[in-house]
Design brief:
94 residues; mainly alpha
Length: 94
């Protein structure tokens, strides 16, 4: 739990830093800030997304293990069951 909390904090910091680089390139549209934002900012943003997805999956797996379920939980269907469409019967093939 402590490790995922640290990873989530790092993901937030990476995302904020990447956002700062992107905003810098908007206010200073010279080539260097734009290139830095589009390269380093993109890498940091992608790393933050991957770290966030890792934390979500790790938390989900821990919850499933704690409940003793090894297979995914299916969502209950809402509403009445679907009925077949009343249409013309297909003609038999000779």
């Amino acid at each position: 739990m402590k490790q995922t909390r640290r990873i989530l904090t790092a993901a937030c910091l990476f995302a904020l830093f990447a956002l700062g680089l992107m905003i810098w390139s908007l206010f200073d549209p010279r080539p260097i800030p734009v290139v830095v934002a589009m390269s380093i900012g993109q890498v940091l943003g992608t790393l933050s997304l991957l770290a966030f997805v890792y934390v979500v999956v790790a938390d989900w797996r821990a919850t499933m293990a704690q409940q003793g379920k090894s297979e995914p939980v299916s969502l209950p269907l809402k509403g009445p069951p679907l009925k077949p469409h009343p249409g013309p019967e297909p003609e038999p093939v000779p």
